[in-house]
Design goal:
The chain has 7 helices and 15 strands. With 256 residues, it is α/β, with parallel strands linked by helices. The structure holds citrulline (CIR).
């Protein structure tokens, strides 16, 4: 059975958004366009039946809009991460307070562990954790230990040259993964049905399944049509300003 989501938490972009970390060379970030795109993203989540809480921007943390990275929300507990990017560490301050409105069971990753939850993909009660420049083995082991306390399971996945695990793979329920070329043959995913992202469109490997619909980045028509042919119902959203900062569809929200 698919996980149904009720809540989402997002954080509005900061005016300093353009100062976020990036490896992309897609041009200058336009704050006003980013705000409009963020509003459209919130609207799409609401249309998927989610009650969306919109947090104020954190002006000192330009990457804080990528809220997915600072917390793993499971059906049984929430785990506040410890971002591998030092400039992002303070994004978790006061997060326990926000989460306590939704969760009784709260945990935190502690030093020397680092985790960004963009590296964690939920497949039912099994969580795949990518080891990246942001998520280390110690952090991944802490996640697994916490998950196991609640009867959930975690597996570590080695990933290649991508920012986060979910930069290159998304779970679309029904035992089905959407994968970029770099992840397609990863041993961890042999038992899944696979949908390949067109090689020219690797950014589209980060899509979000929400309650039967798929939030999908606009301008990736080949993969869009593949998803439709597979029976999915992708909703296109333009998140170009966040792409300029290496951010994908999933990183803009926590869903639980
Ligand atoms: C960063 O480099 O941390 C941000 N500019 C982008 C984070 C994207 N998060 C994600 O894919 N989960």
């Amino acid at each position: 059975m698919s996980n149904m989501f009720q809540h989402a938490i997002v954080r509005q972009p900061s005016k300093n958004l353009a100062k976020g970390i990036t490896t992309a060379s897609l041009g200058k970030v336009d704050y006003k366009i980013a705000m409009k795109q963020h509003e459209a993203y919130v609207y799409a989540l609401q249309n998927c039946g989610l009650e969306v809480r919109v947090l104020d921007p954190l002006e000192d943390f330009p990457d804080a809009v990528f809220i997915e990275d600072v917390c793993l929300c499971t059906p049984h507990c929430a785990i506040i991460t410890r971002p591998g990017a030092k400039s992002r560490r303070g994004e978790t301050d006061s997060f326990a307070n926000i989460l306590s409105d939704y969760y009784k069971n709260l945990h935190s990753i502690t030093a020397a562990g680092t985790v960004e939850a963009g590296d964690i993909m939920m497949v039912g009660n099994h969580y795949y954790i990518g080891l990246s420049n942001r998520t280390n083995q110690i952090g991944a082991q802490q996640i697994i230990q916490i998950l196991e306390q609640y009867g959930m399971k975690g597996t570590i996945v080695t990933i290649g040259e991508v920012l986060h695990l979910k930069t290159a793979v998304s779970y679309l329920e029904n035992n089905c993964l959407l994968l970029a070329e770099s992840m397609y043959h990863n041993e961890a995913f042999q038992s899944f049905q696979k949908i390949a992202v067109n090689i020219q469109e690797s950014y589209a490997a980060n899509a979000v399944w929400v309650n039967g619909q798929v939030l999908f980045p606009s301008n990736h028509c080949i993969t869009l049509n593949t998803l439709k042919a597979e029976g999915y119902n992708p909703i296109e959203i333009d998140i170009s300003e966040f792409q300029k900062l290496d951010g994908g569809m999933s990183c803009l929200s926590l869903r639980f």
